[in-house]
Structure formats: C-alpha cells, structure tokens
Amino acid sequence: MKPSLEVRIAGLTLRNPVLVASGIIGYGREYERLVDLERIGGIVTKTVTLHARAGNPPPRICETPSGMLNSIGIENPGLQGFLEQKVPILRELPCAAIVSVEGEDVGEFCELVRGVDGSGAAHAIEVNISCPNVGPHGLRYSTDAGMAREVMNAIRPLTRLPLIAKLTPNVTRIAEIAQACEDCGADAVSLVNTFIGMAVDARARRPILGTVLGGLSGPAIKPLALAKLWETVQAVDIPVVGMGGIARPIDAVEFLLTGATAVEVGTAMFANPALPEDCVGAIEQAVAALPSAHVEDLIGALEVPEGRGVIRAGKAARREAGRHAS
Amino acid sequence: MNLVSCSVVSNHEVSAGNFLITLQVPRSFARPQPGQFVHLRVGEDIEPLLRRPYSLEGFTERGALRAVRVYFSVVGRGSGVLARQEKGTKLDLIGPLGIGFTPRPRRVPILVAGGRGVAPLLFLSRRLRERKRPYVFLFGARSRTDLYGVREIRGGRLHLATDDGSIGYEGSVLDLLEREWTGARHTPLTAEIFTCGPHGLLHAISDFARERGIRCEASLEGPMACGVGACRGCPVPLLPGPDSGRYPAMCVEGPVMDATIVDWARLP
Q: What is the value of ipTM here, to two decimals?
C-alpha cells in the first residue's frame, strides 16, 4: 500500500505534512534551485507587514552552540509591495502558499488579512503574533491571551482562508494562548517561534546582535519546542503545526508523534536545503510501517505511560473549569 | 548557482593558522568570477550549524576536472573544522554566489589587499593577466610570512607593505596607495580601486576614494545564514544617499560593492 501523507488543516489540504517555516526561503523564488517544492507540503512566506520595513541594524545573526540568534526585524516590502512583487511568485508555486502577516495593532492585522485574502494567492494565513524582533508589538499579542483574542476576533470574520496563529514560546503557559486563539476562531496554531536569547562578546564588552536581544532557533531549541508542543496538543482540539529545531529527518517524525499535524522546517535548512524533502522521506518511511499506512495514525501516536506528562492547562482542566463555571 | 557536492583535493597550512584548501567540484558548478563566493558546509555535523561564506582564491579547469580554491585563516569553530578536513573528504557547497569585481575597460586596476583579504584579489589579478591587462597590486600585511601568494602576482606592478617592516615598505598599505596615486599621476578617469581586507582598512580606502571621486569596489566579509538573499541576515548599512533607506544583502548585492556608499562605521 502506498503510504498516504495527506493532512488537512481546516480547508487546507497538504500533500504531506512538511512546510518550510517563515523567514527561511523568502517567498520561494530565492530557493527555487535548491529545494524541490513539488515534494513538500508548502511554504510559509516571510512575514508581511502593512508598511515596508528595512529591518534591524547589523549584526542581525549570530551562531550559537547548535543554534542561531537572529534579529532580522521583518525586513519586507510591505503589503503593497507584497501584492505587486510577491503574489505573482506565489501563484506559480507548486505547493501550498501560506502567507505570514504581522500587524502593529488590530487595525493593521485586519488590513493585512483583507489584502492577503483579496490577493487570491494564499492557501492559508499564518498570523504572526509572536515575532520577538519588532519591538513590543508582536510579543504583546501572543504573551497576553486577552490581546490574542482581540486580534483573532477582529480578523476571523474577514476571511474564509484557514487562519493559523503562530505562537511564541516566551510565555509561562503557551496552552492558555493557544486556547484563546482556538476560542476565537483560529483553525490551527503553529509553534514555536524563536526563544528570546542574547549573545555577548566578552572581549569587546558588547552584545553581539545590533538589537542586543534576538530569537534563538536551531537544534538547540528542539527539546524546548517539543515540550511546548506537548503542552499545547493536550490543551486544544484544533490542529497544531509544530516547529523548532528540526535538523534531522527523524526530528519531523518526533514532532508528528508528539501530536503535530504538520511541521515547519527552519534554520537547519540553511545548512541543508534538502532537509524538508528528507523529512518527507522519513515520514513516508514511518507511515509505511503502520498497518493503515496513513499519516493520521502517526500523529499523536506517542506512547506515554498513563498519567505521565500530563499538563494541568490541558483540555481536561479546561473542561473541568467549564463545568465549575456552569 | 547550485548546491553541489565537492571533495577535498588538498588542504595545506601555508603559514601559521592560514590554510589553502582545494575542492573538486562537478561540471554543474558554473565558472565563477573573481570576488564571488561559495557557501561551504565545513563538515557533516549539526555543529557548527551554519555554512561559511568564502571568497574564492581561484578556480581551475583541466579537461573535465574543475576545482575551486579557498584561502582561509582559522578564526573560529567553522574554520577550525575546515582546517582538519583531509584529502578525499566529501563536503558540499552552494555557488558561485554573489557579485564579483567589475573592472571597466581602459582604466588601470589598482588592487589593494590587506592580510588574508588578498584571496579574491589574487583571483582577479590572474584574470587580468589572462586578458593581458596591466594592473597595480598593493599588498599589506603584518609580516612577510603573511604575504600569501606574492610569487603568483605576475603581469602587474607589485608593491609590498608590512607592519613590522620585514619586507617592503614599513607601514600601512594605505600609504602605498597614496604614493601610487600621486606618484603615477592616476586620475579617476584613468584608474580604479579594487580592495579586500579588514573592514578598518576598507573604511580608510573608501574614504580615500570618495574624497577624490575614484571608483572603488570592496569585497565585504560577514556572517551569512542562507547566502542567497532569502533570510536577510547580512545587511550592509549605507551612507545617507538615494539608497540609504534600505539594507542591501551582502550575499546577493555583494560581497563586492561600491565601497564609497557603504557606511563602514556601522558595519561590524
């Protein structure tokens, strides 16, 4: 039996659960000679903001042990530039195009969602409420469940495209934010964005990044990301897209087993552009070994001893809270 | 530009801490221009995580065999791993990448090298020699042992400078440039500058060029993540001017750029 890798996120059907994360390959064209997009599920674009952004001053990147700090600052052409220059590229992509957007306030989020919806080039929208590199705005929306609600409530009526809320791990309880997004109409959540980090040049007595703080990604964060994923899948019923530190093909299988419906591959692609395709291969192999040969039976199939690893912010806790309330 | 596998043909320590590695590349690797770079994966491990961008010291083609050469110093984890790669080891690289040097016809190219920044300029000098174009090569380093490739510089006029005076002029290569410029009566219409080296030196040379209206291209160095213009991790700050509202990516709008528009003070 040929293994079936197709997954669905609300109205979005992916040929397989492997996506390229936002900020890694731009809008697809920059990497067209390095990655075979026909073999992967889709790409998430570089985040689009309402107005063009020049990005942060250098240095913007710094390699760390098994990881990388970045403070790019969402350099992008803005919504108008995106519609004019990038939409034609997205239309030609041989895979799903998920457009990432980030607003500085609720009004901007609304304009962006309307614009991207109207472009007709997006298969879904990833709502980036979690970038650590654009001042307090992004993190404000995903460290505060109330503000996440405000954004999701405002944009939900504006589009029928699947809305995927991208969450920051820089919170005490990521599950609470995920639940807030679910309550307000998110079709899925994706996590994790980068962990806030810092690097210091002791000899120069200076921070290495131009913005002092940046976001940590790469294999160093994989165990942290898996824990956040584990916490979240116990708390929500909508699909969860997992990412954070995938660097070997088998890592993608680990995320699916933990409960991710799809995965996003990021930083490690800089070293190995074929990594997303290799991840598809690893998932295919794992699925082929299942009696059903269907990827659905891999997702969340982690065998956890009864009662272990339960996180109190889980679905059960919420249902319990609901009962008390009623 | 392609992702190609390559194998180490040789890897020698030519002076203390400085290596020349030769990598055989397949025919799908396009002929590079002097000043272009390759984004090299220095080993198979996850650590170090990122590729390393290296300007090419040279490119050779003999029959079906193609090879690139990289001259590098051991300065950190990536170069440390690369220095240990032995003959026969398989690596991979993306390239050739970026914009190289673009000499204009009928102008004397003045090549100004500082330390290991000599690498892409050696490549350029060989190309100029092949085209039988006269050039001037000014090469400064800390000491005579750091003057890599001097014997290779033929077909041009060569002047050396060392900080310790162990050979050539004792002092900065910038002094050599000033002397050359006035001594040979160059003008912005008859000569242009191509340079690579520590950013402090490039800063000084670009000031020299801007004050006199000389066309000056410099090869920049810095960390890169993707190497192909996607991640925006290698911004080049520009001086106030028509283009200063944006950050060109060093990997696709460089590494060779018009030195006179770069804001060197803000470039790490």
A: 0.93
